[in-house]
Please model this.
Amino acid sequence: MEKLSGAEMVVRALQDEGVEIIFGYPGGAVLHIYDALFQQDKVQHILVRHEQAATHAADGYARATGKPGVVLVTSGPGATNAVTGIATAYMDSIPMVIVSGQVRSDWIGDDAFQETDMPGICRPIVKHSFAVRDPADIPEMMKKAFYIATTGRPGPVLVDIPKDKTSPLVKVPYEYPKKVKLRSYNPVTRGHSGQIRKAVEELLKAKRPVIYAGGGVIQGEASKHLTDLAHKLDFPVTNTLMGLGAFPATDKQFLGMLGMHGTYEANMAMHNADLILALGARFDDRVTNDTKKFCPGATIIHVDVDPATISKNVRADVPIVGPVSQVLEEMVATLDEIGVTPDEKALARWWEEIGGWREYHGLRYELDPNGPMKPQQVVQALYKATNGDAYVTSDVGQHQMFAAQFYKFDKPRYWINSGGLGTMGFGLPAAMGVQFAFPDAMVACVTGEGSIQMNIQELSTCLQYGLPIKVININNQALGMVRQWQDMQYGGRHSQSYMDSLPDFVKLAESYGHVGIRVDKHEDLDKAMEEAFALKDRLVFMDIYVDPSEHVYPMHIADGAIRDMWLSKTERT
Amino acid sequence: MRRIISILMENEPGALSRVVGLFSQRGYNIETLTVAPTEDRTLSRLTLTTFGDDLKIEQITKHLNKLIEVVKLVDLTEGAHIEREIMLMKVKATGAQRAEVKRTVDIFRGQIVDVTSSVYTVQLAGTTDKLEAFIGAVGEAQVLEVVRSGVSGISRGEKVLSI
Ligand SMILES: Cc1ncc(C[n+]2csc(CCOP(=O)(O)OP(=O)(O)O)c2C)c(N)n1
Ligand SMILES: [Mg+2]
Model:
């Protein structure tokens, strides 16, 4: 058998796993691995400018492709810099493998230079972690790491490797296992047929049904199955922030996003439903508002691959543990087999009621052609310029919610945002990951002047690799979302939410070697967008000045039911 | 309600910290905890007691089951089971007290495992209730030091927790 050093085994394992690209940053503890990387060309290494960006880039790559993202960082500060990105991936169940260097094993515990207990720090934010004790274990640990990261409910897995275990002086036989088995880890591969039948019976009885679909539908490659079932039943569908694109936004059965900044009709339909089919969603507090008041009249069917998600926040009447795609497939088959159709008359009444809500308050905002531009308008212009075909990553804040509301995602994996952790600084590096995965695709990063400054150094990475990302900086000269809460709950006291002394983003983009465009007039917006997307091989930083006082609506009224919302600064339900 | 959760897990470094970490991370309380390898050296058996209603215990067991190293677990309190805790205790044993303590130890079927002129060291096994009753009977004023093992347990009858 071929003999390799630990470092060579790490790289070979990546090759054998089919990994084409990894994101990282070198340092002492991983220099053996970097040397092994240098001597091959199957795995491309992307040098970021900050380890947090490496994790977000790997994360964006994973979200866009469905393949695991891979990160390589050194021990100590390299590893701790990656922590925010690991937590971001964990909260959104993104498959990721992080290889972190560690000080030599005989120094562990001695507070050695650049030593941190990375498995300890990461325990609550990884699906699992491995600490290498013997180089001979590396192939199996790597295989297990990828297996765990990508199966069941996906998530990040850490492999921590002390420097001496990668030494070129120690060579051991290498064989990459074809399969691994863990006696203590067996993700469910099929939903219970009895439960599925029971669920189908409930679906057929329903008079006011809603399908509530989350990120699990996208992760579980079940968008097609969801669309099939929804069309077959003529049921309304709402998506969570993480689920946008799981069901086509331009489909007439789509109610829009639900939750804290969801549409009026989605939240009203949920509240008044007699049946909720929850698919790969987790009844997050940003969806439910007060769970005690949540959907009082609804029978809840909850399908998820993770049993711990079911009945965690809201009790399910029909729990089904299994992959969403398989469960949906079986639901459709069972429907065909039973041959009964849903109550058409009741559904017609239900659609009529929903139509009334849509009419009463669809997504809207006020636009004064003589006043400042509105952030919503920018997202609409982006939609128009890209024909709805761009990958859109976002940062966190008002701009994120406007993008979610106004960019109509018709396909899964095109909307990429940090939903669970809400990590400012995610957007630009995530866009890099997407652009590496799809070099010819349009990739837009919708951001704010606050968020973009949390990983702006990556403009340098973008230049190095020629990434033609379009940065759409919705510049409201404020930490807008914070400011909105301060307006609504703190008597307008804008404590520390004003972004004073902003850089000249155009010059900044230019100094990084990119194109910068400033827009502050309505009439320039569409033209500037087109101009930006016409520059197919350049990164364009669009600095677009908008109304600092705009709020995101609808917005849940705290501690209310899902239907309790502010609809504008003055109207509420 | 008090629950006894018994876990078979991989005997690997880091496994215990993940179980304990899960409890603090999710705001669950651990009342007692004991852990040791089993007859199969690759496995450890961990027993813990905690308090919670059905919903909370369901969550705890689901999250425990999600830990990669947890192979199997059972909530012993769901069925007939035997629970035991062992206690070592130093008790003042002077004057009239000396005979009184000895009598109480006998009644509770404990053993005196070490003696000095003024102190008995008592060993007692039983349920948590029994151990507490014993402390009550001796009188807290007499107790100098108590060490308890934490609860371990096993189900009654033919049911076994193994892989
Ligand atoms: C790393 C991080 N720190 C703080 C927050 C809290 N936070 C949420 S939104 C927001 C304001 C974001 O400002 P900006 O990027 O300009 O977006 P806007 O809301 O103005 O569109 C802040 C500070 C966060 N989500 N992430
Ligand atoms: Mg802003």
